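User: I'm putting together a teaching handout on how sequence relates to shape, and I'd like one worked example. Could you take Transposase from Candidatus Rhabdochlamydia oedothoracis, show the sequence you're using, and then write out its predicted structure as tokens right after it?

Assistant: Happy to. First the sequence, then the structure tokens directly below it.
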Amino acid sequence: MPLKIRKGMMKIEKAKSLDNEKFRRLTGLKRSTFDQMSLILEDKSQREKSPRRPRQ
């Protein structure tokens, strides 16, 4: 069963402390894949938070 992000950051932080085998069993992903996905989501989140210039 994949780790649900909606359940909160605490579960994600707990999962990051697991060894590679337990991490994969919990999330269904290799840690490297999960880390890449996290970076993409963080980048997207930062871009959405940045103010945009209004169209003229």
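A couple of points you could highlight for students: The radius of gyration is 15 Å. The chain has one domain: 5-47.
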